């Protein structure tokens, strides 16, 4: 039986362009630093003699933020922005390079750029360019991964990257200079190679996924023309891969076919588990400390958190979906776990006060909040191109009048609830009740089936359970996610009770269990 879970939005930031990559810094001492990359397609500005449009220009921006839990209402502060080519992927090296955190950036000019973080103060540090590798003309750099996923030192420092020509590109990083050297480049897929990733337990092995629906493994010590294995188990393009940093031989993959597969890399013929998540899986991230928890960015169906314990230990056919953080009119792309250890920002008194409200009062407040906080995008005519598209789409929606901006005080709020506070830079934040435009969809089958969410949005079925859960041990994590088309970066807290509903039930009195059985 799934453990009770809940999500709580902490901050929502307007990134101006479509946000498609977000990464917390994993280097010890720098966990409060967050990078976010954006992607924007500028419409053509000129026509040729035949009257056809010129080429569109892909542009983007890299944001750097500092997270401060001492500012519970607006914990995220922007400390730097850099205008760049459109960004497709961002990855931090897990260990310092030449004594500084370093980030790799895959962009639309076909380059992988590397920047290091300078400065001693977390709230005023800056990214500075270090070096870059050009993969080739007329291509996009689509993904990258570092060989340091287990945060190991002393091993050769390498980066693997994939591009829109279907090629993989292997680099080595010289920490003494520092500098980058191209070790190898080979054709891995007939179409776009959406993703490349290391086996963190054996960094001579890399994995790749392409638009040809193939998952492949490669031994970089051997001839790159021949993969170690090729799997056709996914039915559409493979666009996400991550090796578990906690368990050797455990690999997670995701695809446009809307399935997350778990593999034992010693037997790639049949996956350990196959979970349908109702959206193309653009990114997968294992939790930094809970070895069975997996975060998935599921494009059309938002972000989902999976419990993989059953498939790892009991060979169950699918994982449990613990929580869903649902978006609307956008695509879920970037997602990452913070390594910060958050404390409960809402006091027990505030949580108890919310729990004491009747379900009718909570639903009423939720519905009222929906009306006040529902942002309408009107008179919209923008050329969109998502990183996964090979064509452009023009969206033209007409409506009766202009959209009205919301003010920070424009909605009902529970006393002391930070979730309804917005900075001038922010888009409408989300309240505790899991309404249709909020993180945590009360109508979500996966959420209600797992016990992770209930209609009151508190993630627990009854006020008695909510109060009791305050004293129970729980796993708390900060998550950053970003979405395409609505230009939003979300920072939210996810909580999972470490006491299962079965254990909670065994601690109740007979009268409590009798009353619950009647519901």
Summarize the structure.
With 519 residues, this protein is mainly β. It is 11% helix and 40% strand. It is built from 7 helices and 30 strands.
Radius of gyration, taken over Cα atoms and rounded to an integer in Å: 23 Å
Per DSSP, the total helix count is 7
**Distance between the terminal alpha carbons, to the nearest Å?**
18 Å
| Helical percentage | 10-25%
Overall number of strands: 30
> What is the structural class?
mainly beta
Oligomerization status of the protein chains: single chain
What strand order characterises the main sheet? 1-30-29-26
Mean pLDDT: 77
> How big a fraction of the residues is strand?
35-45%
What's the overall geometry? Answer: globular
Largest sheet: 4 strands, antiparallel
Low-confidence stretches: 48-52, 345-357, 368-385, 388-470, 507-519
């Amino acid at each position: 039986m799934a453990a009770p879970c809940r999500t709580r939005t902490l901050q929502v930031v307007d990134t101006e362009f479509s946000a498609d990559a977000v990464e917390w810094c994993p280097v010890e001492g720098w966990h409060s630093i967050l990078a976010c990359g954006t992607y924007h397609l500028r419409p053509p500005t000129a026509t040729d003699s035949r009257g056809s449009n010129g080429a569109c220009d892909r542009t983007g921006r890299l944001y750097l933020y500092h997270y401060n839990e001492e500012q519970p209402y607006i914990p995220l502060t922007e400390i730097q922005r850099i205008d760049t080519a459109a960004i497709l992927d961002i990855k931090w090296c897990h260990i310092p390079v030449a004594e500084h955190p370093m980030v790799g950036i895959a962009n639309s000019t076909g380059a992988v750029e590397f920047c290091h973080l300078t400065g001693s103060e977390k709230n005023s540090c800056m990214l500075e360019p270090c070096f870059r590798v050009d993969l080739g003309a007329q291509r996009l750099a689509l993904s990258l991964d570092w060989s340091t996923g287990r945060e190991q030192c002393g091993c050769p420092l390498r980066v693997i990257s994939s591009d829109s020509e279907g090629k993989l590109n292997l680099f080595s990083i010289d920490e003494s200079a520092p500098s980058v050297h191209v070790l190898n480049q080979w054709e891995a897929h007939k179409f776009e190679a959406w993703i490349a990733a290391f086996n963190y337990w054996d960094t001579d092995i890399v994995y790749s996924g392409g638009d040809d629906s193939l998952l492949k493994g490669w031994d970089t010590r051997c001839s790159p023309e021949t993969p170690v294995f090729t799997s056709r188990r996914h039915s559409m393009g493979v666009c996400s891969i991550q090796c578990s940093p906690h368990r050797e031989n455990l690999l997670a993959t995701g695809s446009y076919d809307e399935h997350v597969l778990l593999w034992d890399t010693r037997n790639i013929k049949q996956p350990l588990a196959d979970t349908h998540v109702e959206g193309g899986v653009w990114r997968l991230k294992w939790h930094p400390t809970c070895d069975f928890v997996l975060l998935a960015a599921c494009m059309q169906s938002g972000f989902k958190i999976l419990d993989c314990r059953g498939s790892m230990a009991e060979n169950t056919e699918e994982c449990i979906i613990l929580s869903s953080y649902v978006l609307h009119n956008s695509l879920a792309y970037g997602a990452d776990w913070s390594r910060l250890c958050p404390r409960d920002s809402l006091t027990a008194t505030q949580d108890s006060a919310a729990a004491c409200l009747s379900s009718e009062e909570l639903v009423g407040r939720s519905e009222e909040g929906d009306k006040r906080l529902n942002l309408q995008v009107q008179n919209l005519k923008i050329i969109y191109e998502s990183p996964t598209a090979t064509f452009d789409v023009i969206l033209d929606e007409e409506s009766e009048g202009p959209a009205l901006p919301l003010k920070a005080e424009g909605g009902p709020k529970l006393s002391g609830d930070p979730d309804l506070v917005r900075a001038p830079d922010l888009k409408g934040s989300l309240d505790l009740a899991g309404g249709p435009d909020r993180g945590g969809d009360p109508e979500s089958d996966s959420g209600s089936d797992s016990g992770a969410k209930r209609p009151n949005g508190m993630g627990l079925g009854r006020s008695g359970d909510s109060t009791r859960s305050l004293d129970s041990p729980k796993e708390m994590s900060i998550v950053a996610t970003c979405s395409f088309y609505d230009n939003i970066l979300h920072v939210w807290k996810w909580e999972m009770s470490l006491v299962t509903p079965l254990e909670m039930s065994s601690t109740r009195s007979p009268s409590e269990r009798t009353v619950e059985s009647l519901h």
